[in-house]
Fold this protein.
Amino acid sequence: EVQLVESGGGLIQPGGSLRLSCAASGFTFSNYAMSWVRQAPGKGLEWVSTISGAGGNTYYADSVKGRFTVSKDHSKNTLYLQMNSLRAEDTAVYYCAVIITGYWGQGTLVTVSP
Amino acid sequence: AIQMTQSPSSLSASVGDRVTITCRASQDIRKDLSWYQQKPGKAPKLLISAASTLQSGVPSRFSGSGSGTDFTLTISSLHPEDFATYYCLQDYTYPQTFGQGTKVEIK
């Protein structure tokens, strides 16, 4: 059974940093690109970032470029999102996903507030 | 970035109705479009990939069509469990972009 379990969300002050994790199981981690998608409260879905299966290629939304970094640890089957210089508009539920297969985690809430 | 314009933003329908949701891309995306269903507090669920490929376990009342810039999600006969918000997603190129969503409500 495929499982994606996010963690690391919480309340953080503007300008702060947070690292999200997504523990993956039930599929061959290195074979699939993985993504982060977020959803602000009451809003639609926004693609944030994708990393290729092997981890050599990364892609970011303009809204997070230069502030967020996506990475994979193949030894731990874990996807990460390092978020720096956080802003109020980064407040959202963050999902990890294997978009091509439709695997999604349950999401983790990040709240950026003084 | 490719813009995805989804319409309508919301609709009211009755059980048994036929429902059509459209997505228009700002440029040709071939058939690189997916449709998702999301219920409150839940992660999105993939319904259709590659514009028209129904995912395993998804009821056959859901169908997708289109290519290039114009795409359609059709629910042939609305069931009570289909009341949700639907999103399209282009995965033709980065940045990937979602439509704004269509909330399907009970009339």
